[in-house]
Every structure is written in C-alpha cells, then in structure tokens.
Amino acid sequence: MSERAIRRLKNLGLIVAGGVLGVVLTVAASWPRSAVVYRSRQPSTVAYQDGSPHYLGLIRDRSSLAGESYHLMIGRDSSLSYGHRIRVDTATSVAIGSTEWRADGVRVRFTTGHELFVPARYFTFGR
Q1: Cα–Cα dist 46/43, whole Å
Q2: 63-87: per-residue pLDDT in tens?
Q3: 94-110-97 Cα angle (round to 5)
C-alpha cells in the first residue's frame, strides 16, 4: 500500500472517530436528568382497596435540548420510577403546597393556587 493511501486511511479514521465522539457527546449532553422535587406518602389513616402503600412525587426533568419539564408520578413504587404519570405544563417554576390523601383519591395543591385531583382508580392496583 502506498504512503498516500495509508495517509488517506488515517485521515478517514480520524474523521470517523470525530463523528462518533460528536454523536456520543451530543447524546450525553441532551440526555434528560431527573430529580424528585416533592414527595408524599399515603398516610396510615387512608387505605385503598389494593392494600398497598402509595407514593406521589413531583419530578423535574432537565435536558439541554428539551429544556425543563415536570410530571407527577403516583403509585405503589416508592422510587417513583413507574405508576400513573401526569405531565404538568408550566411556564414558571412548579411547587406543591400540600397533598391531601383521601379514600377516593389524592388532591394536590400547587403554590400557584391550582389544584389537581387524581381518583384512586388511576393509581391503585399497580397502575
């Protein structure tokens, strides 16, 4: 193989390696990072038909490409990795003022004055 052909192969290798590195860095930078910013556990004074304890969390997702978004997760998983998911649309910061667990569901009151009621049938029995 000629010296010129070897040089071209090396250059091609550098271009391919740079492209792969660029893709990896782009994916890493845009990968969403999640944080639980509010957590509530069903009190012992409230019981649901499935007999399990339930948890509610407000989760903030951040991504360099998509920006910031929030969702509520309600269910039996204490790590809040699965359950009934509700997207919370907002142009400003979201904060929960209180959570009221009741036999028929859970009421979430935001500091903005908004309220959200989720019936128990949506988060019980592993949903």
Answers
A1: 6
A2: 877 788 899 999 999 999 999 999 9
A3: 105
SS3 116: strand
- Sequence-distant (6+) residues with CB within 8 A of 42 are 48, 53, 54, 55, 101, 106
Cβ neighbours for 104, distance < 8 A, ≥ 6 positions apart:
119, 120
Question: Hey, CA dihedral for 76, 78, 82, 85, is it positive or negative?
Answer: positive
pTM to 2 decimals? 0.73
| pLDDT tens, residue by residue, 32-55 | 689 999 999 999 999 999 999 999
DSSP string, 1-67: --HHHHHHHHHHHHHHHHHHHHHHHHHHHHS-EEEEEEEEE--TT---TT----EEEEEEEEETTTE
